[in-house]
Amino acid sequence: MSTLKNFNLRDFGAGIWAQWNRGTRTIFVLVLLSLVALLPFAAGWGPTSFLNTPITSFQNVLVYPVGMFVLMALGLNIVVGKSGLLDLGYVAFFAIGAYSQGVLSTFYGWNTWEVLPVGIGCAMLSGVLLGLPALRLRGDYLAIITLGFGEIVRIVALNLNVTGGPSGIAGIPNPPGFFGLKFDIMNPQNFFWVVLALILLTIWMVRRFTVRRPGRAWEAIRQDEDVAALMGVNTLVYKLWSFVIGAAVGGAAGVIFASKVMVISPDMFKFDVSILILACVVFGGIGNIWGVALGASILAYLPERIRFLADSRQLVFGLVLVLMMNLRPDGLLPRKKREKITEKGAK
Amino acid sequence: MNFSVLTSQFWSLAFQGLALGLIYSLVSLGYTMVYGVLRLINFANSEVFMVGTFSVLYLQVYILRIPIGDPALHGIKLIAYLALSLIGSMIVCALLAIVVELVAYRRLRARGANRLASLISAIGVSIALLEGFSMITGARGKIAPRLLDKWSFGEVAGANFRIDQVMAIVMPIIIFFLLDQFVTKSRLGKSIRAVSMSEENSKLMGIDINRVITLTFCIGGLTTGAAAFLYTTVYENTVFNVGFNMGIAAFTAAVLGGIGNLRGAFYGGLALGMLEQFASAVLGSQWKSITVFVVLVVILLVKPNGLFGEAVQQTRT
Amino acid sequence: MNKKIISGFAIAAAATLALGAVATAPANAATKTVKLAYQGPLTGGAAALGQDQIPGAIWAIDQYNRTNPAVKIELVKADAQCDGTVAANIAPGVAADKAIIGVIGTACSGEARNSFPAYKAAGLTMVAPSASAVDLTDRKSKANGFPIFHRVVANDSFQGPALARYAASGVASPKYYLVDDQSPYGAPLIKVDVTPTAKKNGTIVGTDSVAQKTADWSSVVAKIKASGANIVIFGGYDYDAGPFVKALRAGGYTGIFGGGDGINTSDFVKLAGGKTIAEGVRMTAASVPLATLLKPDQLADFTKVTGVKVPGLYAETAWTAANVFIQCIKAGKLTRPAIQVCVNSGSFTAADGSKFKFDRYGDPTTAAAVGGWVVKDGEIIYDKVA
């Protein structure tokens, strides 16, 4: 029993990984990647057709919610998992990205790839504006402020003319194609690949940060903010960084989302989305990118897959959350054990 | 901007803000009590409130057999039925709150899990209750029978002192007074305060932590149940997602007053109720939540622990 | 480890092969059954709207299936809950089902906008029984549904003014207070369509926008009382209008309360807390009650098929919308492009027996009349053409 309790799948995987040489690792990663990239065709192929979702289209579900949720969960993980800040309004950055795309493309005719940096910039800027006052507060006060912010963004979008009020913005163009890939409603798999690329980029970015100075500062803040400050870490600046980087990922997801669905309206950016994404992070394993990606895929996919349960599917979803958290409080793939961090520090 | 409404309707708005605010503060006790002891956002409390409103409704319709649309009751029967509804709702909510603690928190706490794990587990309970009730009660709103004839004590300066709203003001004040006495005077109340100051030390002093935590959830459930009774009596309807707005408002009220602090919850709820009424009257209802948010940020920047703050030893999480 | 990698490659290779196979697989040959989808809210907060109208479509299809066994029609329920996000995922799924050749819907305007991209790409024709926002068929609007969207209901540019007029009928000096629910349905109805007529007809003494599912209306009531309004018009759904009327009456407001088709549901009186409170509330809807068009034996048949005693609001337009497709299917149009051509150019019979066609942007050429209704003794009574 005790061995089972202490069993950490993530450490187990890391152990195997450590035994491999560079070549084996490269091959493993490439195979895994190509398998994931082939997912949009899984529903059409006999042995994997059980993955198909009833009523909703599988390839679209892969882009939103699955792909988008993985991307956003990875972004939120920087805030919640790495530096330990509870953000209950992450949907705000998603909305800001989406509305940047909506406004800039319909009013000024910018295409998605031009809007992408601007949308990310807008999300980061709003992250700074919110973070500067909010990050001075501790723990759960931050939670309520971010929760409020998420609602505010939605309410403002609901009441402004430039955002189209409750009807939202329609007629958002699809992104222009490249490399012969066309982005339109008939080719959702191309969107999936773009989202996949963004996910990989985010994973790469997070991994770089984690082993460098910001990552160590976040870890220190997460474990004890007072001690971190005492040791000379500028906690506000590093907290702000994690907040803003998280916002950037949310903004990027929003831009792509808007150009995929072509019509956005305020009711797509409700509080539920923030909660769901937070649930993805915790469900998968706070702080561990592989866990978060897995958790987000499952939580985003599950409600669509069990659509045949009709009304009771959300009930089942809630029960799964409770059950899983009770069985695996650290998530499906928990982060490294504390001891590992001290070991590393001792080197 | 519409300031003219202030001149003619000021007292009416203030009075109704008071009634609404005190319902908020009763629900916010469910958050603040639990937060004081466990340092956790009791996310499922909004659903405890929802179940409370339905328990009042079903008690009146199916057990007391009062058909909807019947004339209001009078005399002893009225008081007895109101009291039964109140007690029923409080018992249901308290039991549910205790069950929520057992299902969502206890096991996780015993394993020393991350606070966020408990939060997600509570969110899971919340979703399950929400969807379960939407299946049982249907997605459409339900109407509660009118027990209480809404006669008025009279109008003073434009404010109409309606019996149900007066009740929504008087009852919370009594409950807060009793609760305050209980927490400061009684032995059990003192043990709650001890645990909220230091769990470790309380253990050393021989306090049964689990019992105190159950008690805390029970008290939060009782007050939330009372709020559910008042809500159903005043608004005479409920729907499966009634808890969402109420939960956000009550949690905001708790933070506004200083989460973890009893009196903070009282005044936070009051302040929020007033603020909402005046903001929607002057600025328009669509800007209500934004005003609340801005005021909240400003207050937290000036007083980082809310209007009434927490004791110094409690600020560290 | 190597075994794992090899098997991984095998799966990848197999997947690639299968992919090719799927891509070249021939589409299913025409079957004896075609499908129509009904898209609207069947669960969620706006469920009453869909639950009221879907029996009209069910009955129309049942009537047809009993007579023409050659090509049967099957109705697929696509529950989009009046929610744009849900619709954005439902629509591609419906479009991907090649057997579905037409969509009866959408019920709400918001979900229509989010469904257009998928249906346009798939060339899937829509005939809506109740999505009445003006921009859906506005040729200047980016949100329009050209060329796949059609509706058998008068749009809000008819309903809005009619509502403003009907609510004020018999009032000497109308003083309007306009409230919307910030929904894609209520806000444009009030802000774009009711406001101009109200201005012309009288004065607007105040406006407010209240979030959906608000419990406490007291501040709105206080404002209305302070403004001295004698007509309150609410753009929104029944579940908000009920508590709103109740709060107004409890607050001592004695003037007229009016609302659009969103509050014209069988649930409204109950939601308002009984017949004394709801008495005299005026409503409009761009539909006439199906029951008034049917002979007793037809009504009995309707009840037998659908289990609904009295057809609800928009059952009539849902019947008409279903019949647009049925008339095309009868003419042997069994593919999406053929249906589209047929609906765009054909002439159809409405539930009241009148003939109509669709104009280029999908509005019916003979705009259906907007009816005025009033609550009398707990029943919503059809009053007159508004």
Compact overview of the structure:
The complex is a heterotrimer of chains A (347), B (317) and C (386). Chain B is mainly alpha-helical and 317 residues long.
Name some characteristics of this structure.
heterotrimer, A: 347 residues, 15 helices, disordered C terminus, C: 386 residues, Rossmann fold, 2 domains, 7-stranded mixed sheet, 5-stranded parallel sheet, 14 helices, 45% helix, 19% strand, globular, disordered N terminus
Query: Largest sheet of chain B, if any?
Result: 2 strands, antiparallel
What is the molecular shape of chain B?
globular
Instruction: Average the pLDDT over all residues of chain C and give the rounded result.
Output: 83
For the record, the CATH class of the largest domain in chain C is Alpha Beta
How many helix segments of chain B? Answer: 11
Strand order of the largest sheet of chain B: 1-4
Distance between the termini of chain C: 77 Å
How many strands, which pairing sense, and closed or not: the largest β-sheet of chain C?
7 strands, mixed
Query: What is the CATH superfamily of the largest domain in chain C?
Result: Response regulator
Structural class label of chain C: alpha/beta
Number of contiguous helices of chain C: 14
Q: Order of strands across the widest beta sheet of chain C? A: 7-6-8-9-10-13-14
N→C terminal distance of chain B: 42 Å
Spans of at least 5 consecutive residues with low confidence of chain C: 1-31
Q: Could you please describe the fold and organization of this structure?
A:
The complex is a heterotrimer of chains A (347), B (317) and C (386). Helices cover 70% and strands 0% of the residues of chain A. Chain A has 347 residues and is mostly helical. In chain A, helix 4 (58-82) crosses helix 12 and helix 9 (213-223) packs across helix 11. Chain A is globular. Mean pLDDT of chain A is 84; it is low at 339-347. Chain B has a domain at 19-239. In chain B, 73% of the residues lie in helices and 4% in strands. In chain B, the strands form two sheets. A two-stranded antiparallel sheet of chain B has the order 1-4. The N and C termini of chain B lie far apart (42 Å). Chain C is an alpha/beta fold and 386 residues long. Chain C folds into two domains: 31-153 and 293-353, Response regulator (Rossmann fold), CATH 3.40.50.2300; 157-285 and 371-385, Rossmann fold (3-Layer(aba) Sandwich). Helices cover 45% and strands 19% of the residues of chain C. Chain C has helices spanning 2-24, 47-67, 84-96, 109-122, 156-168, 186-201, 218-227, 238-250, 268-271, 275-278, 290-293, 296-306, 315-330, 336-345, and strands at 33-40, 72-79, 100-105, 125-128, 149-151, 175-180, 203-209, 231-235, 256-259, 282-285, 348-349, 355-356, 371-376, 379-385. In chain C, helix 2 (47-67) runs parallel beside helix 13 (315-330) and helix 3 packs parallel to helix 4. Chain C is globular and about 65 Å long. At the A-C interface, helix 3 and helix 4 of A face helix 1, helix 3, helix 4 and helix 6 of C.
